[in-house]
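Note to self: keep these together.
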Amino acid sequence: MNKFGISHSQLKKFFRVVGIISIILSIVFVFYLIGKIDIFNNPKALSQLIKNHMVLGSILFFILQITQVIIPIIPGGVTTVVGFLTFGPLLGFLLNFVGIIIGSTILFSLVRTFGRPFIELFISDNKINMYEKKLSSKTFQHLFVLNMISPMAPADIMIMITGLSQMSFKRFLTIIMVCRPISIITYSYFWIYGGEFVKNILS
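Structure:
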């Protein structure tokens, strides 16, 4: 129990529910963009929607991207794609990148402050033990870099585990600033244009 009378297991259940709700809302929003607004056949409709709600939408999405990193059970991949679909390649990338970098630094700092108990809110003990074994490896930093570049890697988990390592905050920030743009752009453009590319090849 903490000072608010909330147990560790209750916190885990709370974050799990938040993650499930966010997944449902994200999927609904993606289908709304693709279906009701028909963004692929009528891009002007999306442009008009963005124009009418640009400031509020940008702020809300920016906060969402920070939050989905700090609470690593919210589907960051889905929200990243939504950012590109909604705000276009330039503003979408900027909101994604800055939000993810801020969220990553907060997540890293939280682990540095609260240690393993914070990670246990989101990851099972067995998985934490598996990742912790890699911390003592001389190749851990290379592994971290590869995870930050890869669009399919569990980036948020690696950030939390890295918070337990001896890596300096400056080195951590440098790595994510350089590597995360690669994974953000690769993942988003794969899901946005990958289906159409495969369709063209098959046809």
